[in-house]
Amino acid sequence: MEIKYCWRCKLKVPMLDKEEFKIASKLYSKALKNTKSNKQERFQELLAYYNNLTGFAETEPNAIMHHAIEYYGPDCVKCGKPYRTPKANICAACGNKREPNA
Ligand SMILES: [Zn+2]
Ligand SMILES: [Zn+2]
């Protein structure tokens, strides 16, 4: 888990690493298959997992599903915001060009 700026939420949120996100994805698809209970109950396990891990109080399951470190690039050396995608060459926030090996 790492705190990173999220371009969609426009704030800093706890992003999950590969292993953590794998578990979250499993809980998410498990919840989707469960059609019996209401949305809050269905996603209870996912929200509890994320909130226990991060100390956050997330209530929106869909927000968690884009909070994966692997979806974003490294943090920009100039402004500290992550590149929008792992392949982005220019920082969307400050226009800083990415170093070839950074
Ligand atoms: Zn977000
Ligand atoms: Zn930047």
The major β-sheet equals: 2 strands, antiparallel
Instruction: Choose one word for the global shape.
Output: elongated
Helix percentage: 25-40%
Distance between the termini: 21 Å
Mean pLDDT across residues: 94
Uncertain stretches of 5 or more adjacent residues? none
Number of strands: 2
How much of the sequence lies in strands comes to 5-15%
Spatial extent as radius of gyration = 15 Å
* Total DSSP helices: 4
Describe this structure in words.
The protein is an alpha+beta fold and 102 residues long. It has a domain at 2-71. It has four helices and two strands. It has helices spanning 18-33, 39-42, 44-54, 61-64; strands at 2-6, 11-15. It has a two-stranded antiparallel ribbon with strand order 1-2. Strand 1 and strand 2 form a beta hairpin. Helix 1 (18-33) packs antiparallel against helix 3. The protein starts with a strand and ends in a 38-residue tail after the last helix. One zinc ion (ZN) is lined by residues 76, 78-79, 81, 91, 93-94, 96. One zinc ion binds at residues 6, 8-9, 13, 63, 66-67.
